[in-house]
Amino acid sequence: MASSRSGKRKLLGQILRSASYRRADRDTEFLARDELRPVRLQLELLKPELIQQEENIHSTIVVFGSARLVEPAEAKRQLAKAKAALARKPKDQDRRKAVAVARHQLALSPYYDVAREFGRLVSSVCQADGQCEFVIVTGGGPGIMEAANRGAADIGAKSMGLNIVLPHEQRPNPYITPRLCFQFRYFALRKMHFLLRARALVAFPGGFGTMDELFEALTLLQTSTVTGVTIVLVGRAFWNRLINWGMLVDEGLISPDDLKLIHYAETAQEAWDHIASSRPAD
């Protein structure tokens, strides 16, 4: 008799531990299956949307830029380190190249301060009296993204970060409002959330990711799929060196009016002035 009860308990234990017995909404292995991709996409749409509604986020300003740009003091330290390494092996071509790159990084490092000031300026103007308009949102990483989130944090304002799962480890920067820090699996849903509430996109010097977001936004505006978003490029010399906009017009690939989608700024105040002048009247 005891053996029979023991056997039943063993069999019951096997059932309770079975993956099929787990509730579907708590079965992470099941939710990770390829067939569940539509469900995961819906979840990635809904979770940030519902939390933003709960936090009364009405509109945002998206800030893009390189994750590799650091504060001027850190850029100086990195250049000194690269020079010291070169001094030990003056003929090493890789070390010569590292010094050249470090010099370029130092030249670009003031944009960190501009992004930080922009985050502080916008948040001080638009989050007064409990309002949550023009909330700063970034990709949530280091560099320019960190600077913009940090500017908002400087004055105790909310800001958002939309992190993405990447093959290498990535952590959100520490200046994002914890309640508004999200992690995405799918780039498509992340991009959608960047633009759902956006009233402006401010792009600092950056690499492939910055280019991707900028050109997607320009395409959506050019085709009137999205309206009411102001595009500001910070650092005219950088952008004109990187992209020959005039050539696109000369070759008939875009119209001259398409260039009116783009505004340039050198300072945080100039960037905000472009956006403020496009704000609808209250």
Number of domains: 2
Q: Please tally the helical runs, counting DSSP H or I stretches of 4 or more residues.
A: 12
> What order do the helices and strands follow?
HHHEHHHEHEEHEHEHHEH
Strand-residue proportion: 5-15%
CATH topology name of the largest domain, in short, is: Rossmann fold
Report mean pLDDT, rounded to a whole number.
93
Fraction of residues in H or I helices: 40-55%
Helix and strand composition category:
alpha/beta
What is the CATH architecture descriptor of the largest domain?
3-Layer(aba) Sandwich
- Major β-sheet, in short? 7 strands, parallel
For the largest beta sheet, what order do the strands appear in spatially?
A: 4-3-2-1-5-6-7
Number of strands: 7
Low-confidence stretches: none
Shape: globular
Description:
It is a single chain. Helix 3 (37-54) runs parallel beside helix 8, helix 6 packs parallel to helix 7 (144-154) and helix 6 (110-126) packs parallel to helix 12. With 282 residues, this protein is an alpha/beta fold. The mean pLDDT is 93. A 7-stranded parallel β-sheet has the order 4-3-2-1-5-6-7, sandwiched between helices. The chain is built from 12 helices and 7 strands. It folds into 2 domains: 42-70 and 110-278, Rossmann fold (3-Layer(aba) Sandwich); 72-106, no CATH class. The protein has helices at residues 2-17, 28-31, 37-54, 72-88, 93-108, 110-126, 144-154, 187-196, 208-222, 236-242, 245-250, 268-278, and strands at 60-64, 135-138, 159-164, 181-184, 198-203, 230-234, 262-265.
